[in-house]
Design a protein that fits this description.
6 helices
């Protein structure tokens, strides 16, 4: 396993613990988003983490965050399929990012984490609607 992949897996595992042990005052959506927060910010003026900021992602064109270097597979899917991030598209992407990108004419995603639990995917999307 490459160094970046190992770091990504470690971050996902660590943030998964946060997901289940989140603060009692956080909403279900905010708690679900904690797993995303290890790689993404919600503020467009923040420097990108491993992934681009997610502020305003709903309705945004795929691959359009200025200054973020997307994977070749992600960029290929965006250009060949003209993806706009809707609830349905994000739901499918979160389930299996690389499988989703390949179905859209692309390849591997930098995002190796898969959010397999449908309720958690829905909770993350509800959070994304508010930011």
């Amino acid at each position: 396993m490459g160094k970046i992949a190992a770091i990504t897996v470690a971050s996902a595992l660590a943030s998964g613990l946060v997901l289940f042990a989140g603060p009692a005052s956080a909403s279900g959506e905010e708690s679900a988003f904690q797993i995303c927060a290890s790689c993404h910010t919600t503020n467009p003026s923040d420097a990108p983490k491993f992934g681009p900021h997610l502020s305003g992602v709903l309705g945004r064109q795929c691959g359009s965050v200025a200054g973020y270097e997307y994977s070749k597979g992600y960029a290929a899917a965006c250009s060949s399929s003209n993806i706009t991030w809707t609830e349905e598209e994000i739901h499918a992407y979160l389930d299996n990012p690389t499988k989703y990108l390949k179905s859209k004419g692309g390849g591997r995603s930098k995002m190796s984490f898969m959010l397999k639990d449908e309720a958690q995917r829905k909770a993350v999307i509800e959070f994304l609607k508010r930011i």
